[in-house]
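**Reference record**
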Amino acid sequence: MKKQKKLAGLQKRKAIAGYIFILPFIIGFLAFLVKPLFQSLYMSFCEVQLSGKGITNVFLGWGNYNEALTVDVNYTRFVTETFTKMCINALAIMVFSFFVALILNQKFKGRALVRAVFFLPVIISSGVVLGIEYNNALLSSVQDVIEKEGAGTGISDAIKNILMTSGVGSRLFEEVFKIIDGIYDVAISSGIQIIIFLSGLQTISSSMYEAAAIEGCTAWESLWKITFPMVSSLFLVNWIYSIIDFSMRSDNSVMSHVSMTMGAYLDYGLASAMAWCYFLVIIVFIGITSLLISKGVYYYE
């Protein structure tokens, strides 16, 4: 009984510490985001008219949603393409970040430097640095030179041509090579996931691996019997993070289309309806996949 009380007290202290950590976000959300959120939801049911007197909302009902889903021929196509790309991209990030975290968890010289290198893209891809990266004329010219120099058929191109012309699983190979071609995007989006996986790997006691080795367990068996179950809860965390991170990127076609509708055409009602439809698709997808993934998660004390 005393042990159970101590355990309950420890869990309560951990919960309090967790709430303290997220308290700034809760305060900021309630103070700055709740009102705009409901205003956006109301605007999605209205025709927003701009005039010198201010903003006037004329209630339309489901008119904006009907136009977004049935009249606008590009919106549904953009949602489908972005959703497919998001699933493939998230899976690639999960695999890449997990195995990179396994490598970075090993003991070798210069480990801290290598970890910093893998986390560096998170810093590079933020704020002003991201704009410099995409708008720098020097970087663009360097990229053009690299593309010209690499115009010849390399080993990867030859393998791609052989597999694609064989007719066996050509669609699957096409998606795989898209991921390979976009390995830069995968790597630059995996920094946070690598850190999360790495923190989970470091909590696994070395005595578990020592006991498994004494019993004759190979490194491959230890990976699937010890490492994978012990960090399985982090797969759920990283999956949700990867989906949300990709869906909020300003360079995906849905977000660009919403921004164009709002900024260029000043149709705030239709843009709000598009944004809310996209939001509901993402939320439903996260809910379904989280439910499926959570069934395979191993929780331990």
Summary: Confidence is low (pLDDT under 50) at residues 132-139.
